[in-house]
Amino acid sequence: MSVYLLRRLIQAAGVVLAMSIIVFVGVFAIGDPVEILISPDADQFERERAIIALGLDLPLWQQYLIFLGKAVQGDLGRSFVFNEPALQLILQRMPATLELAFAATFGAILIGLPLGLYAGLKPNSVGSKAIMAGSILGFSLPTFWVGLMLIMVFAVQLGWLPSTGRGETVEILGTRWSFLTWNGLTHLAMPALNLALFKISLVIRLTRAGVRETMLMDYVKFARAKGLSPFRVTFVHVFKNILIPVVTVTGLEFGSTIAFSVVTESIFAWPGMGKLIIDSINVLDRPVIVAYLMIVVLMFITINLVVDLMYSVLDPRVRLDSK
Amino acid sequence: MSAVVGQGAPIEDPAKIKVETPFRRFCSEFAESKLALGGLIVISIIIVVAILAPFISPQDPYDLAVLDIMDGRLEPGEKSGDGSITYWLGTDDQGRDMLSGIMYGLRISLTVGAGSAFIACMVGASLGLAAAYAGGKTDSIIMRIVDLQLSFPSILVALMILAFLGKSVTNVVIAIVVVEWAYYARTVRGTALVERRREYIEAAECLALPRYRILFRHLLPNCLPPLIVIGTMQVARAIALEATLSFLGLGVPITEPSLGLLIANGYEYMLSGKYWISFYPGIALLVTIVAINLVGDQLRDVLNPRLQK
Amino acid sequence: MADSLNPATAAAPTLEVRNLQTHFFTRGGVVRAVDDVSFTIGRGKVLGLVGESGSGKTVTGFSIMGLVDAPGRIVGGSILFQGNDLAKLSEEEMRHLRGNRIAMIFQDPMMTLNPVLRIDTQMIETVLAHEKVSEDEARARSRDALGMVGIPSPDERLKSYPHQFSGGMRQRVAIAIALLHRPDLIVADEPTTALDVTIQGQILAEVQKLCATTGTAMLWITHDLSVVAGLADDIAVMYAGRVVEHGDVGEVLDAPLHPYTHGLIGSVPSRNKRGEPLRQIPGMTPSLLNLPEGCSFRARCPRAQADCVVMPELKPWLPGRLARCHHPHLEEVVAA
């Protein structure tokens, strides 16, 4: 187990390093850093001094090493717009994004699992066909348009839910959370549903495929031959087996949920880091862009690692093999 | 085939089977799904509308001279101030006819979507072929990059590219190409690896044909079926991605709006109940994507020999 | 051997299957997987149900268990278990019999235990499904059952997952599960086919002993005549969904009546006939989708005559010897 863990950690570190090079070269070598980092009003002398002060006269690999050294210490530059450390800006907005992403993932499982289970157990019923057709729509519909339609129906026409913002929040451990107040929950509902839409379809399909495959297994027939109730066969014998792929995939999808929250946050004015990155790209606030990309990449790799480890906890066979 | 038996229909008369070319067989199998056939018809109509937009649209939405700001935000079905045009789908904030806007928007969406999917296909298929044919280091380097890229979601990769290059239509195309090439590369490599072990490749190699000829004349045509399936799906994805990026304000310029930007323009009016500015472009986008996906789904079923029952 | 324990009730059969028909309604047409199967198993007796793969043996087993899934359905005949027709029971009534009075052992032990549940979970749930006892009591019973089938240190093994067992051990666990409620009938679907020969021998001996002590009747489905010869009291031979011969195992194997049984026995490699070419049955098993009219074996039968286009009935030719044939091998029986 520890050898396996070590190997995965080294692998992950390699990917982080590769991505830092890509981001560094992308942001600081393709664009002109002088224009970005130095005020356009500066005269020639000031420019040259700044170039030397920023190390821009050094070869690229040396610049990268300096960037890396600072990044390791948590220094990813200062935002031009907010004049704050970029990392701090991102971290301030991260809880809102995480809250949204968690709510979406949770919602996707809560809605997708039962629907997928039904579609798998009764594949020929009208309900199942409707569910599957719906899941195709869920894959095809552009997220941002669905978000607008949700606002149109629930906020404008029906007036049930607020359309923008986080609503009332409660502060716990220095960060603010919406899901603990009723008002906050009503604000969270629509963005979470919007972000969950794709994942609901995914969970439905995975669950249905898993159920149909598992139902054909000998051990399910054997469980029935033991005289177990259909309830126990479905919810213990079948369910536990399909839980493994569903948890794995929704876990792996968590990273992309965070990435796609960019769209949802823009629509619902959810003050997370996705909205920050779009604003930053629009005003070319590059330190924030770099910080965002590095943070998201880091989260991604961490998530992949955690899901791998969780997989081995859930599936007893994997646990033994990796020992 | 199985469906024929399933319907209990008598076996087709042999004379009919004799003249069945592979293409005809493909067509008849494709037409088995009414949904896919409907999708194909819808796509054809959309393409024709997009091509003929300058001739059939009631108004040139890019010509600011014909726009009358007094006609702004009219509801669907209302007439223009001078009574010359009926705005069947309403107007946007600048008095632009939404129907015309959608027709022109489709043009841009389809061009950017299909164009970038095509470039991605070229790049991806070439690299995939190269990886499969060369093997060894070339293969493992290309596939490492593919794996790394596919482990990140499309929107993140696209954001990264646009953050590096700045926003413009060209950069949106580049972003989509960068996002999508990996899918083509993986598919083509997978198929090509199987195909290159076949005897006809050996035979071509024995004839000492030039390498590019073996690659493009012998190997590539046999990798086409999965490529077509992936290509169809990726066009839909490209259109959706372009729309999303434009919606976020990172895509096409405001002067020549694609569907995504039209939807974004209507966003602020949505809260005051003026739904049509966003709604109808969205419907056009949705119908396009769903139709392409339906066709792609059926193509996959028909072209994939492993799935044939 | 076994019948010495219960001579009085030996006459009342545990299971009597009469003209059972189970068909599968597929897109390609109706598959008559089981089409007229009849046999009887007395209390504490072992019946070997023999046939090639695809002859309908397994479907017969599942029909008895009430586990035939769509598109399959029992369309005719009766399955009398201690006098009650199982085919007429509701799913709920059937469920109370399954795993309780009638248990089943499957072919592939690697596939029959749920890989993500521990052995104790899978055993205790079986006890609790049919009896209201405490979990401790259920655990104790499970442990005893494991000990009974020869699994060492059952207390520890209960906490294991299936993948930590070998194939033979898993089959023992499956047998232990089948024995938990001391059933009156066990349907065993080729339970030793997937095992090594030595393990197979151990399990057969174990099963024989258990049946003898508990008075459990057994339907042993197999394609292996040598297993039947060593284990069963009676034999029923299936061909293309029908029982073609039924009788005492010794008598049938010594002098089969039906030409198919004859060919089947002739196909077994034997030490006595070293050097001689193996006999074989020519041709292939017919498709169950469109069986030929009349006797389904007639196309491959060396004794077939014009009257074989009429389906023969399964009828007694000798005392206790039934065969579905117009021209059985009677002369050899007389000679023997």
TrEMBL record, chain A:
Membrane topology: Multi-pass membrane protein
Superkingdom of origin: Bacteria
Keyword Transmembrane helix in annotation: yes
tRNA-binding is among the record's keywords: no
Limits of the ABC transmembrane type-1 domain: 94-307
Family: Belongs to the binding-protein-dependent transport system permease family.
Protein name listed in UniProt: ABC transporter permease
Lineage of producing organism: Bacteria, Pseudomonadati, Pseudomonadota, Alphaproteobacteria, Acetobacterales
Key words of the record: Cell membrane, Membrane, Transmembrane, Transmembrane helix, Transport
InterPro entries linked: BPD_transp_1_N (IPR045621), MetI-like (IPR000515)
Cell location: Cell membrane
Predominant localisation class: membrane
Annotated transmembrane regions: 12-31, 100-121, 133-160, 180-198, 242-269, 289-314
TrEMBL record, chain B:
Entry membrane topology: Multi-pass membrane protein
Location (main, coarse): membrane
PROSITE patterns, per database record: ABC_TM1
Domain named ABC transmembrane type-1: residues: 106-296
Keyword Transport: yes
UniProtKB keywords: Membrane, Transmembrane, Transmembrane helix, Transport
Listed transmembrane segments: 35-56, 108-133, 275-296
Domain of life: Bacteria
Cellular compartments annotated: Cell membrane
Family affiliation: Belongs to the binding-protein-dependent transport system permease family.
PANTHER family (UniProt xref): ABC TRANSPORTER PERMEASE PROTEIN, OLIGOPEPTIDE TRANSPORT SYSTEM PERMEASE PROTEIN APPC
Protein name, entry field: ABC transporter permease
Natural source organism: Falsiroseomonas oleicola
From TrEMBL, chain C:
Database matches in InterPro entries: AAA+_ATPase (IPR003593), ABC_Ni/Peptide_Import (IPR050388), ABC_transporter-like_ATP-bd (IPR003439), ABC_transporter-like_CS (IPR017871), Oligopep_ABC_C (IPR013563)
Domain ABC transporter: 15-265
Keyword Membrane part of the UniProt annotation: yes
Membrane topology listed for this record: Peripheral membrane protein
GO molecular function, one term: ATP binding
Pfam families: ABC_tran, oligo_HPY
Subcellular location: Cell inner membrane
Keyword annotations from UniProtKB, A to Z: ATP-binding, Cell membrane, Membrane, Nucleotide-binding, Transport
Record CDD domains: ABC_NikE_OppD_transporters
Chief localisation class: membrane
Family designation: Belongs to the ABC transporter superfamily.
NCBIfam families tied to this protein: oligo_HPY
Protein name listed in UniProt: ABC transporter ATP-binding protein
Source species: Falsiroseomonas oleicola
